[in-house]
Amino acid sequence: MNAAYRDLLRADRAANRGYTKSLLVLRWFRSCQRWRGRSDPFARCAYLALAASYKLVTEWILGIELPPSTRVGAGLRLRHGIGIVVNPATVIGRGVMLRHGVTLGNRRTTDDCPVIEDDVEIGAGAVIIGAITIGRGARIGPHAVVTRDVAPGSIVYSPRPEIREPTADPQGALS
């Protein structure tokens, strides 16, 4: 096991302390990435077996789509982990937090995906699509839909809910 791989595992472990499911998924994810990066025949066979089981369990059972081909920095934090969808062309920096229901994906072509810089927190249900950059330390609120660049340290709030009060017609019925 090389030092870079150990450092990734150590950072993921520290970032997800107390989140057993997240630790399991990320360890499996990093193992897939490690075998995927090698070119010898044994490694290719090991990757295919490992990646198939990873995909079956994480996508079909746990509802987490985080492909091994995705570039992800150390210390990714997964919170709850249900309904996370990440396009393989997305780039995720160090110390990023993904909460449940997050979508990071393409907009027009298969590879026009976001770049999420280091230390970004993404709220539950947020959708970030297109060839955009989310700057270092930005915070994306729950249910926000982001389709343009976000400056470092910025906060993106979710859309303001529109609440309409019921009105009474002359005969007293609500409409």
Highlighted features:
175 residues; alpha/beta; UDP N-Acetylglucosamine Acyltransferase, domain 1; five-stranded parallel β-sheet; 19% strand
Chain-wise SSE layout:
Layout lengths: L2 H13 L4 H17 L4 H21 L2 E2 L5 E2 L4 E3 L4 E3 L4 E2 L4 E3 L3 E3 L9 E2 L4 E2 L4 E3 L3 E2 L4 E2 L4 E2 L8 E2 L19
Parallel strand pairs: 1-4, 2-5, 3-6, 4-7, 5-8, 6-9, 7-10, 8-11, 9-12, 10-13, 12-14
Helix pairs in contact: 1-2, 2-3
Mean pLDDT: 91
- What is CATH's topology name? UDP N-Acetylglucosamine Acyltransferase, domain 1
Order of helices and strands: HHHEEEEEEEEEEEEEE
Number of strands: 14
Structural class: alpha/beta
Tell me the major beta sheet. Answer: 5 strands, parallel
Quick rundown:
The protein is an alpha/beta fold.
Describe this structure in words.
The protein has about 180 residues and is α/β, with parallel strands linked by helices. It has one domain (about 5-155): UDP N-Acetylglucosamine Acyltransferase, domain 1 (3 Solenoid), CATH 2.160.10. It is built from three helices and 14 strands. It has helices at about 5-15, 20-35, 40-60, and strands spanning about 65, 70, 75-80, 85, 90, 95-100, 105, 115, 120, 125-130, 135, 140, 145, 155. The radius of gyration is 19 Å and the shape is elongated. The model has no long low-confidence stretch (mean pLDDT about 90).
